[in-house]
Each structure stands twice: as structure tokens, then as C-alpha cells.
Amino acid sequence: MLLSSRRAKQRVPGNVARYRGVTVDQSRESVAPLGDAPAFPLTELPPTTSIGINAQPRYPMFAVPIAMFGLIVALLPPLLVTIAVRLNEMNPTSAAGNVSLVLGVGAFFAFVANPIGGRLSDRTMSRFGMRKPWIIVGVLVGYVGIVLIATAPGVTMILVGWAITQIGFNFALAALIAMLPDQISASRRGRVASFVSLAQNVGSVAATFLVQLFPLGLAQNLVPSAVGLVILFVFLLPMHDRVRTEKPTETFNLKTLFGSFVFNPKKHPDLGWAWLTRFCLIVANTTATSYLTVYIIKDLGVKTADAPHLVFQATLANALGIVLTTAVLGWLSDKLGRRKPFVVVSAIIAAVGLSIIAFSGSFNGVLLGELILGAGMGSFLAVELALISDVLPSDADSGKDLGVVNIAQALPQSLVPVGAPAAVAVFGYPGLFIGGAIFGIIGAISVTRVKKVK
Fold it and tell me: What is its membrane topology (predicted)?
């Protein structure tokens, strides 16, 4: 799909933007291929396009979700299991506090890295593409952090390792998420976004399954993440990435850098409400994932060596609920042209699941609560990413804007560990889970304020 050197030098009028093999006349809102070069899918083809929707390559429709699956399999073993297990081995009495410290600091770096990664990928002019270089370098840096976690002699080194892991993987995540509007047209985003979300959650099951296959030690810390990276590379590398041929008009300076973290909710209220909805639902889900390992050890009396296997069972129950709802509801959302009702219902179901976990007092109750929570989050994830893609202010800055939106996913992972110890000290773990359910209901209310999307 690369242009020949002769065509690459072809002069293009000022009102025409060029991407890989495609000339877009912005004054007429039309798309035409240069010579016999295949058309590259833009973020959203205008109604007057000369390329029908069937001309869009199908490979990204399954390659992006599977690449996301691999990235999540690589990232989640430390978050869900191995960090908590290692910290509990080092000092059982301080495990909960140390988990909060490590996850909170790591989430702060995720919060910083994600929008910067999105902004930099928007500006990248590499002949290998805008997104792929950041994904590849990001996950390799992240794996270095996982190696540090596996070999750390103390809490400080685990914290440093997790910070490096979050920086690397969040650069990669921002670039990979930006491939959705890059590669998939609006009429297909609901389906593909649901598969991306499904891949993220099935990835958590695969991650915990791989972890529990190995005894405590280096293999348990390193092999599952390595498997995820192999999956990511197999499906990412053949994908044709969007190539930028014109230099950004905006100078990259400190103002631009700090601008990566903000958008104007007054100017773009729909994006603001969508951001708040994601934030609240991720807070709800984080309370039931980040503290599950410590909860079953401390409150349910499970031995540390048995915890990875039980966490896998709980994660599997959660993923089953997600699978039962995500793919079908993503398709139904596209069919009906509606997003908000699915989000409202999902938040209510998730709140019910968290309430069951809070008051169960047994592992069987945890399994039931995780199943229902998964069904609720599956309904949410089926349409949430498509809803956000539909309200992005600009295609040109989609990586940056999605990076800002991803703050709503990273920030709860920082704030929940800060507030969780106090909540657990006063109300116990049931109070923590009920607090998550309340945030879920707030998310259901906030999505009703989005005007552009039904």
C-alpha cells in the first residue's frame, strides 16, 4: 500500500489531505485512490465518498481486537495476581497497604503516559506508521518492568517495576485504541468496539489462567506476559498502519504537552459526560478486581498458594458474564442505532453484582457476584467505546482525545487504592464494594446527559 516515490512527490492542492494511497479533497468531502493504490480506511467515510463501505479491508476488524487481547494478557498478570502474591510473601501484615501503594503509584504513571502516548502517535511521521512504532516499543519497555517485578528483592523495586510497566503499556494502549477510529468506519464501530472490549476482558481470564498453571516463582511472573506479547506481535505486524505525510501544524512544546491531558467539557459536553460515565463504571469495576486477591486471602481465609487458582475462577465467572452480553449487544447497538440505554442498564446490573460480592461472605457468592458484574460490564463495554468514538471532536486528534478519555480508565486505578484502605478500615471490604456500586449508579445517570448519541 505504500506509494511509489513518483506518486509520493505528486503535488496536492492545499485543500487536499493525503493518507496511505488515498487523496481526500476536504472541500468536496470525497475520497479517491491515487492510481491503482488500494484505498486506506479513514476514520469515517463521508456520505459522498466514492469508496463504498464494502471496500474497507476486513483484516483490522479482527486484528485490532486480537492484538488488544495479547496486550491485556501481557499486562494483567501483575495487576490481578502476581504483585499481590509477591507483596503478601514479603510481609503478610502489610500486604493490603503495599498493594494500594504499588497500584496507586503505577496508576498515576498510567494516567500520565496514556494521553502523552496518544498525542505523540498523532504526530508521528514514521514510514512504519503512526501507531505501530509506539505499540511495539511500549510493550517491550513494559516487559522490562515485569522482569523487575519478578526479580525484585523488596517493595520499592516492585513499585519501580510496576511504574515502568504502566508507562510502557499505556503508550502502547493509547496507540492501539487510536487504531479503532483510524481503521474502522462509524457503521461498524459498535461491533468492533464490542470485540475490543470483549478481548480486554477475555484477556484477563487468559492471563489468570496462565498464571495459575505455574508454581510461585519466576515462570509465574514472566511466561504469561511473554505469551501475550507473542499474540500481539503476530496480529499487529501484518496490519497496515495509517501513515502521516504532512508535518503537524502545531508546535510540540510544554503547552502542547500539558494540553494532552485536557479537553474543554463546555465546548464538547458530550465527550465530558461520556468521560464521566467511563470514570464511574471503571471505579465500580476496579473495586472488585484490584482487591479480589487480598479479599479472598484476608476475609475468606484462603491460603496464599491457592489464591491464584481461585482468582482465575472468579475472573472466569466475570468473563462468562461479559461473553454472554458483549458481542450480541454490540451488534444490537449498531442495528438499533442506540448506545445510552445499554449503558444505563449495564450500570444497574453491575451495581447488583457488586452488592452480591459485598454481602456474600463465601467464595460461591463471589463467583455469583462476579458473573452478574461481568454481565453488567459486558453490556457497558459493548457500546461504550463506540459511543466515545461517535462523540470525538476531531479525527485529526483522535489519538490525543482517546488518550484523554483513557484517563477515565487509568485515574480510578490510582484513586481507588488511595481511598480503599480508609474504606476497608471503617466498613470492611463489603463497604468498598458497595462504594463501587454507588459509582456505577452515578455513571448510569451521567450517560443520560449525552445529547449527540441516542
Answer: Multi-pass membrane protein
